[in-house]
Amino acid sequence: MLTAEFVEQSVEQLPPEELAKFRYWYARFDADAWDAQIEADAAAGKLDALAAEALAEYHNGQAREL
């Protein structure tokens, strides 16, 4: 079974060019996983309360333009 410790040790042994490739791949992998989690949470209604609170603050003049 592959473990986090094994992956850590393997990454530590990568030469700089391969480490750069790994970093690039992992950044995309992590971003895709984050996006999927946000989409799942939104579809499940887990963000509805936050959205309602933000809209209420906006309509009550408690928000500011960015």
Give the topology, please:
Elements: H1 4-12, H2 16-43, H3 48-59
**What is the oligomer described by this structure?**
single chain
Cα-atom radius of gyration = 20 Å
How large is the share of residues in beta strands? under 5%
Cα-to-Cα separation, first versus last residue = 48 Å
Give a count of the beta strands, DSSP E runs of length 2 or more.
0
In words, what does this structure look like?
The structure is a single chain. By secondary structure, this protein is mostly helical. The protein has a domain at 15-59. Helices cover 74% and strands 0% of the residues. The chain contains 3 helices and no strands. The longest helix has 28 residues, at 16-43. The model has no long low-confidence stretch (mean pLDDT 96).
Please supply descriptive tags for the structure shown above.
single chain; 66 residues; mainly alpha; 3 helices; elongated
Summary of the model, kept short:
Helices cover 74% and strands 0% of the residues.
